[in-house]
């Protein structure tokens, strides 16, 4: 059952719908994190390879990206 925001959002009783929604949300965040890595942090780390801050951020974001990639794939 889908309701408007005014009526309050509700999920159906089918857990497959929940999983599908959650995967879409993780995919959206995966896209954002990938863009952050490639467009912001990656160039920073490339321009200043000895910058500890850039290396730490890049490592952390790569870990998050790997986690989200595993969450958006179809696994039982």
What does this structure look like?
Helix content is 71%, strand content 0%. By secondary structure, it is mostly helical.
Which secondary structure elements does this structure contain, and how are they paired or packed?
Elements: H1 15-47, H2 52-72
Mean pLDDT: 87
Number of helices: 2
Estimated structural class: mainly alpha
Spans of at least 5 consecutive residues with low confidence: none
Strand percent estimate: under 5%
Element order: H for helix, E for strand: HH
Helix content: over 70%
Q: Largest beta sheet, briefly?
A: none
Overall strand count = 0
Q: Brief overview, please?
A:
This protein is mainly alpha-helical and 76 residues long.
Descriptive labels:
71% helix, elongated, 0% strand, mainly alpha
